[in-house]
Design a protein that fits this description.
Layout lengths: L8 E4 L9 H28 L6 H28 L5 E3 H34 L4 H4 L2 H27 L8 E2 L6 H5 L7 H34 L4 H29 L9 H24 L2 H18 L1
Parallel strand pairs: 1-3
Antiparallel strand pairs: 1-2
Helix pairs in contact: 1-2, 1-9, 2-3, 2-9, 3-5, 3-7, 3-8, 5-7, 7-8, 8-9
């Protein structure tokens, strides 16, 4: 492969929208971005402040919130700038950095949601051994595995892109630098890049979703075997938020990445990308806080303590 690129910058075409709607979209997306950052920071802080929330489920939830911040911050700020800018350019190095952090966030989240389903499986199907298996050490090891995989995958995609040459078109029909769209602009052989991309998609897409599906098959059978209606309701409530997040996350990404594509992003592809880069990261803390009694009690307890200490 050739060593490096002959292009110093790319042009991000961005979202297809009339000029009169740009300010409205700017206000909407900026509000959603601020809600996303505030909500996920809230989850990270609350799970570290209250000892009651120092459990494996909330440990993984804190990791999920950090990933959502990384994913949305790697794409949304540049998109907001381009909405009000005439020159929608991004430097070659800036594009690689954006692609790197976005890929870290997405690839790591795939594995993290899988380990979160394993956590729910052990809690419901094997409660007597749950604490011994899901110890603090085990949780840290799982966390290291998912982050290491995400960084390794993203590093390969980013470094291999640095060695490609881009000698023709430099317009990316998207609002951020994503691996398939960047590879489509290269004028060198990208067969190895495509092969690794397919293998990564198969591992993260098919294998992870199969493991999640199998976990929830056992969870459903375990819940059905619980005699009391209250016990069934309590067991299901501990999984409801995770199931919702998995359906939203995997549903949109499977539709986006596993459909036939020529590398050129369509308007529908960009609309789907808005969903998994902005909407889902904003909804995750809402789903895990509003529907969770432990989080609500922790917030009330912290507010109560602050009030008492003040007076």
């Amino acid at each position: 492969m050739n060593n490096g690129s002959s292009i110093s910058e790319f042009i991000l075409i961005g979202l297809s929208n009339p000029p009169e709607l740009r300010m409205l979209l700017l206000c909407v997306f900026l509000t959603m971005y601020l809600i996303t950052i505030a909500g996920n920071l809230f989850i990270i802080i609350i799970t570290n402040l209250d000892p009651i929330l120092n459990t494996p489920m909330y440990f993984f939830l804190g990791n999920l919130s950090l990933l959502d911040i990384i994913c949305t911050t790697s794409t949304v700020p540049k998109m907001l700038v381009n909405l009000v800018s005439q020159q929608k350019v991004i430097s070659f190095n800036g594009c690689i950095v954006q692609m790197f952090f976005f890929t870290v966030g997405m690839d790591t989240e795939f594995l993290l949601l899988t380990f979160m389903s394993l956590d729910r499986y052990l809690a419901i199907c094997n409660p007597l051994r749950y604490k011994s298996i899901m110890s603090k050490k085990s949780c840290i090891i799982m966390s290291v595995i998912v982050w290491a995989f995400g960084f390794s995958s993203s590093t390969f995609h980013s470094l291999s892109t640095l060695w490609l040459s881009f000698c023709g078109a430099k317009e990316i029909n998207h609002f951020f630098c994503e691996v398939p769209q960047v590879l489509a602009l290269s004028c060198t052989d990208i067969s190895l890049n495509k092969l690794v991309l397919i293998i990564t998609d198969l591992i993260l897409g098919l294998i992870c979703i199969c493991l999640i599906f199998i976990s929830y098959v056992f969870i459903i059978f375990a819940i059905l075997n619980i005699r009391s209606a209250e016990g069934k309701k309590k067991a299901f409530s501990t999984c409801a938020s995770h199931i919702t997040v998995v359906l939203l996350f995997y549903g949109t990404l499977i539709f986006a990445y596993f459909k036939p594509s020529s590398g050129e992003a369509s308007n529908m592809d960009k609309e789907i990308a808005v969903f998994y880069t902005i909407v889902i990261p904003m909804m995750n803390p809402i789903l895990y806080s509003l529907r969770n009694k432990e989080v609500s009690l922790s917030v009330k307890k912290i507010i109560f303590k602050k009030t008492i200490s003040k007076y």
